[in-house]
Design goal:
With 482 residues, this protein is of the alpha/beta class. The chain has 14 helices and 16 strands. The structure holds one RNA strand of 75 nucleotides.
Length: 482
RNA sequence: GGCGGCAUAGCCAAGUGGUAAGGCGAAGGUCUGCAAAACCUUUAUUCAUCGGUUCAAAUCCGAUUGCCGCCUCCA
């Protein structure tokens, strides 16, 4: 078993070899909590959710750390503009932490609905101010940073490798057009490690340079290395953070620790709406909450995972609906397999064939995910397996033992890892409607036997209106909630 | 202007040197009192265009065109 990942640093797929055998440390850039989580967040965190789950079920012990940016993320570039959270707080006329708390809860709520597993733990920038100050101080002492009037800037010229991730060379960076030169910086590319707080700034801390707050990039450097080590395995995040955010993280961390920052950079691509990037400033973003109101979590995951994580996902309502339609076959299969297991069928004409196929499919899906998390390939394999298994079921050729085996494979990949197979719903109401349904089905059967089809149809229609679907099969009727 | 990526059927989307997965949609069929579900068949002689390398290319190289992202906050 070899897992390969596309490393943005080397720009090619590489075999994934953990620093410490059997253990993986992964850090993923989390959201800045000042607004609603949207489809873009969903793509990113579903992607890393699948990556982590796949690593885990491949036998690796994973420590997955994700940050919550709750301070210091400016609206403009790294050294001007306003703190995003503070700005939102001013608009809402609340304390900044109220903004932070509200959107953190919303984020976690949405992620849970999307079946994104909790990381090993979340870390917050505001809870690591001391460590960040220490890091900045250390960078100043080592000559990588300088202080100007309460601000501390990182000197990019002190790190010759600056630009190695994004492929940008310092000398190529033309000054002026979009990068506004700030008076007190030595180089326009220098970025803020510590910002002096303006008089009205609420979230601020004491530091050797006066009251202020940390720059955006330093939090990730500090928290990632604190919990995962000076050099760790995987750093993930959205493509748009490659520059400047990740580039700055590398510069800070490596000049601070004199060690490589991380081994594999994994970047997920963007979500577009009608081919255009989804962005807050463009006003075309779709929130998770809104989408979850109209689609199942599984449908959203299937939509996201049907595109490779390194390709952009183009959002259309039609695409999500199509993903949901495809999913029903998977759900149906699960129900059908459970039925065979419950009936404890012993005979199985196709048992040998099915068992063999099941093993092959299991290996194939693993292979697809091993190959840089090819989720579309994995889903395709799963779907063609569904067709094959349905054929066996149609011929009544499976025993309970083999059905259980297949069910385990389908639930492992479709359910546990990809998260596109809905969990079997338990009792949703206080009254168990199963016996009632049984009675109605028997009654309806009698009507059918007596050729009173109008009555039988009326029962079926009334139940449909009530949210229960009757399906007549060769072996009698079955029902399910719509 | 600089850096990077992508172009595969009506739509979504794998495949990265050996002769085009899968899903949605559509059409026909089997089953069925009718439905639903499921299954079967059909739906790209061809992978943006033009050259080149090779016995062999969607896959490698070059050029062209189009689209997208980053270079300012963004997952």
């Amino acid at each position: 078993m070899t897992i390969t990942l596309y490393n943005s640093m080397s720009r090619q797929k590489e075999e994934f070899v953990p620093i410490e055998p059997g253990h993986v440390g992964i850090y993923v850039c989390g959201p800045t909590v000042y607004g609603p989580p949207h489809l873009g967040h969903a793509k990113s965190y579903v992607t890393f959710d699948v990556l982590v789950k796949h690593l885990r079920q491949s036998g690796l012990k994973v420590r997955y750390v994700q940050n919550i940016t709750d301070v210091g993320h400016l609206t403009d570039d790294a050294d001007a503009g306003e703190d995003k959270i503070q700005r939102q707080a001013r608009i809402d006329q609340v304390h900044p932490y109220e903004v932070v708390d509200k959107w953190t809860r919303q984020y976690m709520n949405d992620m849970e609905k999307l079946r994104v597993a909790h990381p090993s733990f979340y870390v917050r920038a505001s809870q690591h101010i001391g460590e960040q100050i220490e890091a900045v101080q250390s960078l100043v002492e080592k000559g990588h940073a300088y202080v100007v009037d309460g601000n501390v800037y990182y000197n990019v010229e002190s790190f010759p490798e600056y630009g190695k991730l994004s492929g940008r060379r310092l000398e190529e960076q033309k000054e002026g057009v979009r990068v506004e030169t700030r008076g007190d910086k030595r180089n326009p590319r220098d970025f803020a490690l510590w910002k002096k707080a303006d008089p009205g700034h609420i979230l601020k801390w004491n530091s050797p340079w006066g009251e202020g707050y940390p720059g955006w990039h330093i939090e990730c450097s500090v928290m990632a290395t604190k919990y995962l080590g000076k050099t760790f395995d995987i750093h993930g995040g959205g493509l748009e953070n490659k520059f400047p955010h990740h580039e700055c993280e590398i510069a800070q961390s490596e000049s601070l620790n004199d060690a490589p920052f991380c081994r594999y950079w994994v970047h997920n691509n963007m979500v577009t709406v009608d081919g255009i990037k989804m962005g807050k400033s463009l006003g075309n973003f779709r929130t998770c909450e809104d989408l979850l109101a109209r689609h199942s979590p599984e449908a959203l995951r299937a939509f996201v995972l049907s595109t490779h994580y390194r390709s952009p996902s183009n959002y259309t309502e039609e695409a999500i609906t199509a993903a949901a339609s495809g999913l029903t076959r998977l759900t149906q299969l699960q129900t059908a397999l459970l039925e065979i297991v419950e009936k404890n069928v012993s005979a199985g004409a196709s048992d040998n064939e099915a068992e063999k196929l099941s093993g092959e499919v299991d290996a194939k899906i693993r292979e697809r995910l091993d190959d840089d998390i090819d989720s579309p390939g994995a889903i395709a394999t799963l779907y063609s397996f569904v067709t094959e298994v349905n054929r066996f079921i149609g011929a009544s050729a499976l025993s309970a033992r083999v059905a259980a085996l297949i069910l385990a494979v389908v639930q492992k990949w479709g359910g546990d890892v990809l998260g596109i197979l809905p969990a079997i719903s338990g009792k949703e109401s206080e009254v168990d409607i199963a016996p009632i349904m049984q009675m109605l089905i028997e009654l309806r059967q009698e009507m059918k036997a007596a050729k009173k089809f109008d009555v039988a149809d009326a029962i079926r229609n009334r139940l449909k209106d009530a949210g229960v679907l009757i399906e007549d099969t060769r072996d009698g009727a079955r029902w399910k909630r719509i």
